[in-house]
Each structure stands twice: as structure tokens, then as C-alpha cells.
Specification:
This protein is of the alpha/beta class and 325 residues long. It has a single domain, classed as TIM Barrel. The strands form four sheets. The protein has a six-stranded parallel β-sheet with strand order 6-7-10-11-12-13, sandwiched between helices. Helix 2 runs parallel beside helix 3, helix 3 packs parallel to helix 4 and helix 11 crosses helix 12. The protein starts with a strand and ends with a helix. The relative contact order is 0.14. The mean pLDDT is 96.
């Protein structure tokens, strides 16, 4: 079974009018483009037509409108994701949307998504409200997710905490978000989140921001003795195990975020085992055409057994938690 593990929607109710052929770009407070809205986001019938053409059996459904949102918005999005599951049996798998810093009320909603809706994972962003994922404020969230047996989908932040250097050329979206994902991966590992919460499993978006191309440098800077930082409270911290141990055991990296470019997948495979990659498209944002998704699936198949494993062999690592529960 082929599952698209990064597949987005926005409920029609959140738009004042039918968007028709419009593209509406939202800008953040710094003036950087943040999100592009269009009718494909709520046309789930077209999602199904695309999936049928591309040979995709199901899609893990998340909504940018509900990522790290307030409680009312989270509940609305969660119920709409569940409605999509009911309206299209077997074709969509809902994700829980809660604010990770929302406290007891957010955790109650997370439990509702787990036990009433049966969602297998929760989506958060790579940085939130001026904080990064190694901040102590997230500790109770990690504890709650671990207790519920969910996986965590880390999507790139739609608004970066510090977007100043990405003030032109749409670079906040094109590369800033990828830097954020790389940093989220490093922060989760080096801060000891997985050492304190050994059963956590993270689904990291966009091949971890293309982290494979940076791993040689990242590994080098784990040697705190070589760089003279042993004992430094901020820069000398490392995890209990070597960096790659966590890449091999605590992360699944999805293939979205590179607009269907198979070269990006091949680059990732130099450093990341095929067993840690899961198929994803970022439809209908970075990819919007049915044929583009179909061609991406076909290019993946051309990788042979490696491509088949990415397409359909690894998804159970995430979804079996739902079945077990």
C-alpha cells in the first residue's frame, strides 16, 4: 500500500468564498510570503482523482490552518480530518492537530484524537512561538505524546522565529524552512529528547530539510573535544549515543518538499538508509498537478527495490502504532 505521508488540506469553511482560479498569498509580519491558498486545498474529490491516477492508496492528512493553532481551531480541523476519513473510506488518515504548548486542554484534545478519532500521529512545526524544539517548555508535550503512543510529524514552520535574513526572493519558504528542519533535527538529538523519551518516533518532513548533504559537517561538530567545547553548557551538549544512532532509530524522513525531484531523493540515499525514508508529495502545495505526482511515483519505482521500499515498505513503522493501539 502506498501512503502519501505529507498531504495537505484546508476546510472550505475557512475561506470566505470559493477561490475559483485565484491564488491568495499570505505574508508574515516581516513581509515574507508564508502560504499560498487555492481551491485544491479543499477539493478532496480532486485529491482522490490525483491519487487514483498516481496509484496512491491513502494519504496522511494535515492542515496548515491547524498546525500549532489555538484549541478551537485545533478541534475544528481534527473533526474535519475525521470527516474526510468517513467521507472517503480508506483513502485518508487523519493527523492530530494541537498546540504543543497548549497545556492540559491541548493534551485532552490530543487524547480525544487518539482514542476517539484513532489518529496515529500529531503534527507540529519545527519552531513555535519564538521557541525551538529543544526548549524545556516542550517537555510535557513529549511526555504526553510518548504516553499516548503517537508519532510526531514535524512540518516546517510556516512563519520562522527569525526571518530577517530571508527578506527577499521568497527564500523564507524555499530554503529558510529547510534550515529550520535541519536545526530541529539537531536540537532534538543533542538536547537529549530521545534519551529522556526513548519511545518517541519523529516523522521529519522534507528529507529533514536536505540534511543528508550536511551530515559530514554536522558529524564533525559533534566532536566537542576537537572543537574545544567540552563542558560548555550551550554548545558542548551531546546525546548519550552518537548522532547517527538517532537518525537510524528515532526518525523517519519523508520525500516531500523537493517538488518531485528524484535527484533530491538520490542525494538523501547517500547518507540516509532507504529503511528510514517514507513517501510523501506535499500535495497540493509544492506539487499540484495529477500528472506530476504520477511521474514522481514512477520515478521512485525506477529506483528498483529501494524505491519500492520507500513507496510501500516503510509506512508501517508509523501506522502500526495505530493498529497496535
Amino acid at each position: 500500500m502506498i501512503v502519501d505521508f505529507q498531504h495537505h488540506f484546508t476546510p472550505r469553511e475557512l475561506f470566505k468564498e470559493d477561490l475559483g482560479d485565484k491564488l491568495i498569498v499570505t505574508f508574515d509580519e516581516s513581509g515574507a510570503p508564508s502560504y499560498t491558498s487555492h481551491k485544491l486545498l479543499y477539493d478532496l474529490d480532486e485529491h482522490i482523482r490525483m491519487m487514483d491516477l498516481a496509484g496512491i492508496d491513502a494519504a496522511f492528512l494535515t492542515s496548515a490552518a491547524g498546525m500549532c493553532a489555538n484549541l478551537d481551531r485545533s478541534k475544528f480541523i481534527n473533526d474535519k480530518a475525521k470527516q474526510a476519513e468517513r467521507d472517503y473510506p480508506g483513502r485518508f488518515i487523519g493527523a492530530a492537530h494541537v498546540h504543543p504548548l497548549g497545556g492540559p486542554d491541548a493534551f485532552k484534545e490530543l487524547a480525544r484524537c487518539t482514542y476517539e478519532h484513532g489518529f496515529p500521529g500529531v503534527v507540529i512545526t519545527s519552531e513555535v512561538d519564538g521557541l525551538f524544539l529543544d526548549a524545556p517548555e516542550f517537555e510535557s508535550f513529549w511526555t504526553e505524546v510518548e504516553k499516548l503512543g503517537l508519532f510526531i510529524f514535524v512540518h516546517p514552520a510556516l512563519k520562522l522565529n527569525f526571518p530577517q535574513q530571508f527578506d527577499a526572493y521568497d527564500t523564507a519558504r524555499s530554503v529558510g524552512r529547510e534550515f529550520s528542519l535541519i536545526m530541529a533535527t539537531i536540537r532534538l538529538i543533542n538536547s537529549g529528547v530521545f534519551d529522556r523519551h526513548p519511545s518517541l518516533l519523529v516523522h521529519m518532513a522534507h528529507l529533514g530539510g536536505g540534511i543528508a548533504s550536511m551530515l559530514g559537517r554536522i558529524r564533525s561538530y559533534q566532536d566537542k573535544d576537537f572543537w574545544g567545547l567540552r563542558g560548555n553548557a550551550k554548545h558542548g551538549r551531546t546525546s548519550l549515543n552518537d548522532f547517527d544512532y538517532y537518525l537510524r532509530t528515532k526518525f523517519m524522513f519523508d520525500t516531500a518538499g523537493f517538488c518531485g525531484a528524484i535527484g533530491s531523493i538520490k542525494t538523501a540515499l547517500v547518507e540516509i538508509s532507504a529503511e528510514r525514508l517514507i513517501f510523501a508529495t506535499d500535495y497540493p502545495q509544492e506539487i499540484r498537478g495529477r500528472e506530476v505526482v504520477r511521474d514522481f511515483v514512477n520515478d521512485m519505482r525506477k529506483l528498483g527495490s529501494v524505491g519500492d521500499r520507500i513507496l510501500s515498505g516503510n509506512g508501517d513503522v508509523l501506522l502500526r502504532r495505530r493498529a497496535t493501539r
